[in-house]
Amino acid sequence: MNDRDLDDALIALADSTRRAILHRLSQGEARVTDVAAPFAISLNSVSKHIRMLERAGLVQRRRAGRDHFLALDPRPLEEAAAWIEAQRGEWTVRLDALDDLLRSRNQKKRRRRR
Amino acid sequence: MNDRDLDDALIALADSTRRAILHRLSQGEARVTDVAAPFAISLNSVSKHIRMLERAGLVQRRRAGRDHFLALDPRPLEEAAAWIEAQRGEWTVRLDALDDLLRSRNQKKRRRRR
Q1: Nearest Cα to B81, choosing from B10, B21, B24?
Q2: Chain A residues inside the 8 Å CB shell of B3
Q3: Which member of A10, A87, A91 has the closest CB to residue B10?
Q4: Chain A neighbours among B 77-96 (CB < 8 Å)?
Q5: How many CB pairs under 8 A join A and B?
Q6: Which of A16, A55, A77, B51 is close enough to B3 for a disulfide, judged by CB 3.0 to 4.6 Å?
Q7: How far is the CA of B72 from the CAs of A23, A66, A92, B46, B53, in angstroms?
């Protein structure tokens, strides 16, 4: 995933309506109208959110006659998770190193006091 | 973390310069000028990115005389990771259920063929 794709995925995730749509689709494929039904906003507004999710690659659309079915594509979620995990890993390593340093200093201090 | 805070964290993460700043800070606390140095953009532009990271709670600023030190605050990263993980978990459960269904159908087919 390049930087631009990661930007698009994170921006697409940065909205509670879009997160609710993805949550709905995590339960299974659904018609556009069924996805839109629980929201207090217009079908047109929901459609705009869905198109943003499609552009970010988080949602795939399947046409069956008149019906449009939406499905979650978790690959951009995986990529976003991988980036966050990588950060988390480095941060934890740094904290552990700091922890070790402080512990060894304290041990030296204690030895000097004896 | 409420929805608005999660929105802010994800929008703050949705930019490669801001991700690079966080990556730099994952190595340890740093002066604003040192954080800005590797970037080909103006100090003013980097400062805007830093302020956005501060507003999202991803960066903390410590003043020591004239020096401004920046440190990564990983808490919003943890929250964003938790949301993505929750989605991933549900999606995996759904995929596993689908997998079981297909497997049991195939087994029935095979039994019929015998």
Answers
A1: B10
A2: 16, 19
A3: A10
A4: 77-78, 80-81, 83-85, 87-88, 90-91, 94
A5: 83
A6: A16
A7: 29, 50, 12, 16, 9
From the candidates B13, B17, B24, which should be mutated to test the interface with A, based on the most A CB atoms within 10 A? B13
Please indicate, yes or no, whether the overall pTM of this predicted structure exceeds 0.90: no
- Residue length of chain B: 114
Q: Classify residue B37 by its DSSP letter.
A: T
Could you give the ipTM of this predicted complex? Answer: 0.78
How far apart are the CA of B112 and the nearest CA of chain A, in angstroms?
A: 29
Q: Rounded distance, CA B28 to CA B71, Å?
A: 7
Q: What is the pLDDT along chain A (114 residues), one digit of tens a residue?
A: 789 999 999 999 999 999 999 999 988 899 999 999 999 999 999 999 999 999 999 999 999 999 999 999 988 988 888 888 888 877 776 666 666 767 777 777 777 776
Residue with tokens 């949602």: A59
